[in-house]
Amino acid sequence: MPHSSDLQALAGLLQIPQRVVVLTGAGVSHESGIPTFRGSGGLWRHYRPEDLATPQAFAREPELVWEWYHWRRTLIAQARPNPAHHALVALEARSPDFTLLTQNVDGLHALAGSRRLIEIHGSIWEVRCTVCQAVTVERRLDLPPLPRCPSCGGLLRPNVVWFGEALDAERLVAASEAAQHAQVMLVVGTSAVVQPAASFALWAKRAGACLAEFNLEPTPLTRHCDFAFHGQAGELLPAFLASLASRL
Ligand code: BJW
Ligand code: ZN
């Protein structure tokens, strides 16, 4: 089925209250100066994911993995939410039933003011003890190269989900339920290749949702979408919100 790129038509659908779910990825934070993972300038072009984002890599070379996370934490600490993050806050405010599922670990959705938010891959601002499993918020940037747990002395790790690791069970259930009950699902700035996140959109579609993608380029999900908009999320989403507002 060919998809539409008519923002007004998508805005028209939301004139009637709908259960809205949004799935975001690294593309949403790109305009805040945070590199994406894949594609030109993506993090994976310089580092192999299996070297950095797996439990095996951390067991083998925790210094290297922490070095990467110290660098990213410093970069993200300087970043501010962009118009795409703000547009999603505005969409939440006008939607009676709204859930934002993000793969991003940077915390920018929360900083922008999103509240009905599930960070399915965790947060770069939390650490977890590899021994006692305690999770704590840690925003200091001057951590030692290999930070240790203040309670038990165990090695700390970023509280994020690496390849081969299970998503937090509660978040996974909440995200799956939201996806399966969505009437409209917006998929923004994700390459839609990492599971299970990419499948949330397909489950929503299978359960009858209208699927709309906002991305610089087509993804494996595009052919399943009812709407596909190509461009910068920071321009497309505010334009979409403006279309909604002009219909009030
Ligand atoms: C713009 C833009 C602009 C740019 N405007 N757009 C089934 C089949 C095959 C494999 C698997 C499977 N199930 C599980 C797997 C394995 C694996 C997986 O998916 N592998 C695939 C790569 C093949 N999945 C897992 O391992 C997951 N775990 C799991 O399933 O566990 C099962 C299990 C059960 C029980 C016990 C044990 C295990 C976990 C996945 C964790 C992913 N982790 C990372 C790192 C997080 C921490 C960190 O950030 O440091 O998450 S990897 C990385 O990819 C990160 C991201 O969240 C994730 C997705 O990337 P994203 O967000 O899509 O970014 P990009 O860069 O890929 O795309 C950016 C997009 O934006 C592009 O499309 C651009 O065009 C666009 N863009 N600028 C609009 N301005
Ligand atoms: Zn501990």
Q: Can you walk me through this structure?
A:
The chain has two domains: 4-34 and 80-121 and 167-246, TPP-binding domain (Rossmann fold); 35-78 and 122-160, 2-Layer Sandwich (SIR2/SIRT2 'Small Domain'), CATH 3.30.1600.10. Helix content is 36%, strand content 19%. It has ten helices and nine strands. Strands 3-2-1-7-8-9 form a six-stranded parallel β-sheet, sandwiched between helices. Helix 7 links the parallel strand 2 and strand 3 (117-119). The longest helix is centred in the first third of the chain and has 16 residues, at 62-77. The model has no long low-confidence stretch (mean pLDDT 95). The protein binds ligand BJW and zinc ion (ZN). Ligand BJW binds at residues 25-27, 30-31, 36-39, 42, 53, 103, 105, 121, 160-166, 189-191, 193-196, 215-217, 219, 232-233.
Q: List the uncertain runs.
A: none
Percent range for β-strand residues: 15-25%
Number of helices: 10
Fourth CATH level, the homologous superfamily of the largest domain: TPP-binding domain
Which structural class fits the helix and strand makeup?
A: alpha/beta
What is the fold named in CATH at topology level of the largest domain? Rossmann fold
Strand order of the largest sheet: 3-2-1-7-8-9
CATH class of the largest domain: Alpha Beta
SSE succession: HEHHHHHEHEEEEHEHEEH
Named CATH architecture of the largest domain: 3-Layer(aba) Sandwich
List cofactors, ions and other ligands: ligand BJW, zinc ion
The coarse silhouette is elongated
